Amino acid sequence: MAVSINSVPGTDQLPVVVIGAGPVGLAAAAHLVERGIEPLVLEAGPSAGTAVRDWAHVRLFSPWSEITDPAAEKLLAPTGWTRPDGSAYPTGGDWAEHYLQPLADVLGDKIRYGATVVGVARAGRDRIVDSGRDEQPFTVHIQQADGREERISARAVIDASGTWSTPGPMGADGLPALGEKSAAGHISYRVPDLGDPAVRARYAGKRTAVVGSGASAFTALAQLADLAGDEPGTHAVWILRRGVTGSTFGGGEADQLPARGALGLRAKAAVEAGHAGTATGFRTQAVERDGDRLVLVDDNGRRLDPVDEVIVLTGFRPDLSFLSEIRLGLDERLQAPTALAPLIDPNVHSCGTVYPHGVNELSHPEQGVYLTGMKSYGRAPTFLAMTGYEQVRSITAAIAGDREAAERVELTLPETGVCGGAGLFDEPDAAQNVEGGGCCAAPATLQIGVGAPASTGGC
Asked: Which one, 50, 110, 261, 360, has the greatest CB density within 10 A?
């Protein structure tokens, strides 16, 4: 696919709208500034890295050296900012405090907080209309925190909104299980912060089902095992759609991300110590009430013993609702850009390398709109922070009309990649919705990641 460059006459003075002030969105803004192009970052939350702050208690699998963007560092340097120790592993809170927020502060009024994007379209054209379409700027519809609506014109749109706001449900068919919604008060879709007294009390001395098969599930199992040591009666039941094999707990000591491998071993130890049981071959179909407790039922009618709480870690998916009037080219399975999907499809890849990619793989039939970061991966379970930074470097070069730079690869990735279906994900936006053949000896290097609570040093 040729490089798609937005060169609509008369739009050069309009900003490029970036949706989301997370790691990749802020990197996109930094690259635009470097190119002399005005960005406008729209962030629904009250601060930079709002989603990252939601998992502030979790430590990344990746060190500082791999989670900062070069163009962003150039913006930060004149402020006296110094990159933290490159070999250290930050928590989500560290990342937000020591990198994301300082970068956002440098960008200043180029970021608007409390601005939720509710629609993107071509000015005066719905998705059906061909006539004059490519000659029109984009209109970005936003709703402000106080409820006021606004329309912003843009020369291009970079959607780096991630997938954090749309976790996968418990139901094995990708839809909520029967009774799942009505039981919402006892169900969480996030790795719990057991350092919070209120959260700790929710699980202490309780029986909790953990649904999911990857690093986020490992984290929850390890945390609950630690809690069981302090709070008698605390027990986990690990719900797996397939059986337990030698690869269920990840790559272990062979994992090229040692902290991630150690996390899988901690989950294995929790099971072996009896702090967590397993329910294998269990594809949840319904959630029933048993007094104040819940009973999970699978598609064969098997019923588990009642539990007090359920932690669902079955993946995240992109919110495409506000892009309904944009002509996107998306893979029918992954909801990722058509040209990118074959490179990241967990149904096909088993430790294959996902090579660096950019505007060619991320372009759509609608010129000038791009899904980047975790959102570009749709429902695929792996993502590399450095890949996201390379994506926006290439895209901003294309927007600037620098075709050579847009098509040039400026990133060398580790020789790791998608790891066949085990769901060892490093970003909470990409938790486990694929349960399958397990991980091979050198699992994917996935850089933005949750895996362990801050107190453990994992992830």
From this structure: 261
pLDDT tens column, 132-185: 999 999 999 999 999 999 999 999 999 999 999 999 999 999 999 999 999 999
With tokens 């892009």, the residue in question is 323
- Structural contact between residues 399 and 16, judged by C-beta atoms closer than 8 angstroms: yes
53 neighbors 25 (Cβ within 8 angstroms) = no
What would the pLDDT profile of 70-125 be if each residue is shown by its tens digit?
999 999 999 999 999 999 999 999 999 999 999 999 999 999 999 999 999 999 99
**Strand positions, DSSP E, 262-371:** 276-279, 284-290, 293-298, 309-312, 352-353, 369-371
How many CB atoms lie under 10 A from the CB of residue 295?
A: 16
Q: Are 39 and 16 in contact (CB under 8 A)?
A: yes
- Other Cβ atoms closer than 10 A to 184: 11
Q: Is 149 exposed, middle or buried (0-12, 13-18, 19+ CB in 10 A)?
A: exposed
Read off the tokens for 198: 């209120």
DSSP string, 408-431: S------S-EE-TTT---SSGGG-
